[in-house]
Design a protein that fits this description.
- Belongs to the glucosamine/galactosamine-6-phosphate isomerase family. 6-phosphogluconolactonase subfamily.
- With 238 residues, the chain is of the alpha/beta class.
- It has one domain: 3-Layer(aba) Sandwich (Rossmann fold).
- Helix content is 34%, strand content 18%.
- A 7-stranded parallel beta sheet has the order 1-10-9-6-2-3-5, with helices on both faces.
- Strand 2, helix 2 and strand 3 form a beta-alpha-beta unit.
- The structure holds ligand LXAUTJHC.
- The site of the ligand O=C1O[C@H](COP(=O)(O)O)[C@@H](O)[C@H](O)[C@H]1O has 12 residues, from loops.
- The site of ligand LXAUTJHC has 12 residues, from loops.
């Protein structure tokens, strides 16, 4: 049984970015006032850049915020495919340049060594995350939970013991590192940021009938103890 999500629908991606950034900044401020610091996990891909830039201008004690990628492509941080590069260029700028950053990517030859290093670094954080911002691909993947991944079962296991796993998938361009389902689900707030009519209708289908192996966002929706906050706007030109 899926807890009914809270939909936040906007007329344009710009309006979404502004309001979403304001809401997340407020939530981070509350977390800092309650426990002296805040942990924020953010997704990569093509959708979040405007939201990141809007959030980076908010006035909050950024030195008390640690940012972690929800998932990472196993590519150098100079690559255009690097989620870390996106986060550094769009979120860790302006006022948010003072935030701390815990990467998933490590410059080692073997991705399983990178996963061990990232798992240790995430385990050392004062978990749980206060805010997790998820995205969703057109195939229903979220984080790096891909439908055709041999490692999907382990990554979306609600009892997974690791916080970070290395995963592969024929549909992904490169091997990935991903936070696992339980560490995402333990967050104080889980927000899902999607844009475009296609993703809206895909999500409605998953909400009506979740099949996590086919559309892995369904694993989050099915197992979340609290309703997700879904931020949606049409794409430009829709
Ligand atoms: O590969 C990824 O894709 C998803 C969705 O990205 P988008 O470009 O369709 O917005 C993203 O949430 C994830 O972090 C990223 O690694």
């Amino acid at each position: 049984m899926i807890a009914d999500p809270r939909w936040h629908r906007f007329a344009t991606p710009e309006q979404l970015a502004d309001r979403f950034a304001g809401d997340m900044a407020d939530f981070l401020k509350i977390a800092i006032s309650q426990r002296g610091q805040a942990l924020l996990a953010v997704s990569g891909g093509t959708t979040p850049a405007a939201f990141f830039r809007a959030l980076s201008t908010h006035d909050l004690p950024w030195t008390d915020v640690t940012v972690v990628p929800v998932d990472e492509r196993f590519v150098p941080t100079t690559s255009e495919r690097s989620n870390e590069k996106l986060i550094r260029q769009n979120l860790l700028v302006n006022k948010a340049a003072a935030a701390r950053f815990t990467p998933l990517y490590h410059d080692v030859a073997d991705i399983s060594d990178a996963a061990k290093l990232a798992d240790r670094a995430v385990t050392d954080l004062p978990l749980p995350f206060d805010v997790v911002v998820l995205g969703m691909g057109g195939d229903g993947h979220t984080a790096s939970f891909f439908p055709d991944s041999p490692e999907l079962t382990g990554a979306i296991d609600p009892a997974a013991s690791h916080h970070v796993l290395a995963v592969t998938a024929p549909s992904a361009d490169e091997p990935r590192l991903t936070l696992t389902l339980p560490v995402l689900l333990s967050a104080g707030l889980i927000a899902l940021h999607i844009e475009g009519a296609e993703k809206h209708s895909l999500l409605e289908t998953v909400l009506a009938e979740p099949h996590p192996r086919e559309k892995p966002i369904g694993a989050v929706l099915l197992h979340a103890a609290k309703p997700l906050d879904i931020y949606w706007a049409p794409k430009k030109g829709e």
